[in-house]
Amino acid sequence: MTSSTFVDALRQFRWQVRVFHSSGGVLENLQTHAADALVLRGACAGAPGLIATLRKAAPGAAVVWQAQESTALERVAALDAGVDVCTPGGMEVLEWDALLRNLYRRTLRHAMTWRLDRRARALAGPGGEQLPLTPTESAFFIRLLNAPGQCLHRERFFPAGARSPLDAARRVDVLVSRLRSKARRMQIELPVLAVRGWGYLLLPHTDADEPD
């Protein structure tokens, strides 16, 4: 099944699919878009390293690798690197749909109740909350949404524009402080927990009240 046929078939099952021909393109996209599943197709000498990188960039996404000519040792290395499933070549689209639905159900159990409303450019909550966001604030929440239930280092949010890790940490601290002030003005409890000496994590709506 060619790439275009594969994508067209998944779209017929109402999956929203984006196609990338390089690891750099995928990683760049994950900075601004949350993913439910990442599918790698084809043999790749550095597959385990790429899988580990993708797992780090989007810990909440399912990762699937299909390499028709892969060996048992290569599949073991991929599994050790964090891939969820190694699929055989020649899978029918019905199998792909069932596999992705099953993986999605598993990840949905840990999914956050908050989401980004791109049309409104806001953080949307299950109770109808709408917190307007700047592009930088949206990028902050994308990173949290891509790592549900995980605490992210302060230095990991915006490393590119920082002069040092300390500068990156201060930048995100200032951003969160401004977000909290904005949320309070709109009577919204910001669902972000600060972990002292570490970083930030996104809380489910039911746990949004931050402890003293």
UniProtKB/TrEMBL annotation:
Keywords from the named record = DNA-binding
Outline the extent of the OmpR/PhoB-type domain: 105-204
InterPro entries in UniProt: OmpR/PhoB-type_DNA-bd, Sig_transdc_resp-reg_C-effctor, WH-like_DNA-bd_sf
The UniProt annotation gives the DNA-binding region as 105-204
KW Lyase (keyword) present: no
Claim: Cytoplasm is one of the keywords in the record: no
Lineage top rank: taxon = Bacteria
Pfam families to which the protein is assigned, alphabetical: Trans_reg_C (PF00486)
Record protein name field: Winged helix-turn-helix domain-containing protein
* Lineage, uppermost ranks: Bacteria, Pseudomonadati, Pseudomonadota, Betaproteobacteria, Burkholderiales
